[in-house]
Amino acid sequence: MSRKTRGAALAVLSASMLLAASACGGDDASSGGDADTVTWWHNSNNEPGKGYYEQVAKDFEEANPGVDVQVTAMAHQDMVDKLAAGFQSGDVPDVYMERGGGELADHVEAGMTRDLTEDAAEEIGKIAEGTLAGWQVDGKTYAIPYSVGVDGFWYNTELFEQAGIEAPPETMDELVDVIGQLKDADITPISVGAGDKWPAAHYWYFGAVRTCSQDTLNSAMESMDFSDPCFVEAGEVVDQVLETEPFNPGFLTTPGQEGASSASGLLATGKVAMELQGHWEPGVMQGLTDDGKGLGEKTGWFPFPQVEGGEGDPAGQLGGGDAWAVAETAPDVAVDFVKYLFSDEVQQGFAENDMGLPTNPAAIESLSDPALADLIQVRDEAAYVQLFFDTLFGPSVGGAMNDAIALQFADQATPQDVVDATQQAADQEG
User: Fold this and answer.
1) By CB neighbour count within 10 A (0-12 exposed, 13-18 middle, 19+ buried), where does 355 fall?
2) 277/272 Cα distance (integer angstroms)
3) d(C-alpha 15, C-alpha 8), whole Å
4) What digits encode the pLDDT tens for the residues 308-335?
5) Interval 360-416: pLDDT, tens
6) E strand intervals along 162-230
7) 23-49 residues labelled b (16+ CB within 10 A) or e (exposed)
8) For the chain, which domains are there?
């Protein structure tokens, strides 16, 4: 993907115009089959999301006799890996989750993702222009974002109270103090699924948002030049966290979201006090506890702390989202299905099940989790929301960045090494 194309997918926006942000089941059939068959992949592999989407598919089939929606639910990382392989081989599902940014631009450049600008004009018209930007290339919309939100620390309010913590930390120094209080109370402070790399990488991403100005981030996204000192400082923020030794035992091999022993599972079951994760976390945790409630009323959230001396806007956030896209070779009925997925009815059910932060305005009031409802305000009042860097840059540069950050978590790379690896990958891609 050219730098010019990536620049068109630049993921930073104003408060009024938000830009952005889980065992495989079902049939693996790909697009290009019978015109009445729609293959659909998603990552809601835990309840209630898995069951809800199964019912959504059945409802669509009933309303469209002769249509067969073949649903495949899988863990998030499995889905990302399988989609990447599918795009390499040209064998992708009819409807799939598109994360936007550089990844989408690559898919569009390869001619594998359908332009929905005219076919879904009514649905697209309901979404704030800035929210759409992450899923547009050259002014055309190639996917319909259905959930967009921000990153932050999800925490167990009960464990914070046990440790005598009266308020969430607002600065990095306060975060260090909170970690110390939790350790003094024999509570593991933080879980991280570094085995999947991207959960660990979010610390560096947010470090960059706090240490770099918005102008610097914009410039770097356009030029792919990471020479500004603030990017090394982002890695120093990571080191500050690592030096406190806050993470769960075996965090370097811990998965992000799959199973009770994953980072999300450890938080959901009260084994740790907090986790840096996206807006999808409450829905993920619900599927990892026996009662289906996750942390329930013990769920708290706070933004990534401020960095003293950092040039980042205090109101800036990190985030991203998911959108429904249609393969270029998919039958027309796949477009109808995507439009149905964004309907008021389906988005309201999505919100009621705490599966994310809906983008359809008609679904906002349906959010049942107070923590998620509060995030809508954080999302909409952010000075800007920086799209996750791995999504923005695509697999080559974003993958190199994540790999280097994972090595830093393993004490095998320095903050400068992370920048050097990222710059080298960017230069090679050209």
Assistant:
1) buried
2) 14
3) 19
4) 999 999 999 999 889 999 999 999 999 9
5) 999 999 988 888 888 888 888 888 888 899 988 888 899 999 999 999 999 999 999
6) 188-190
7) eeebeebbbbbeeebbbbbbbbbbebb
8) 3-149+319-386 (3.40.190.10), 152-316 (3.40.190.10)
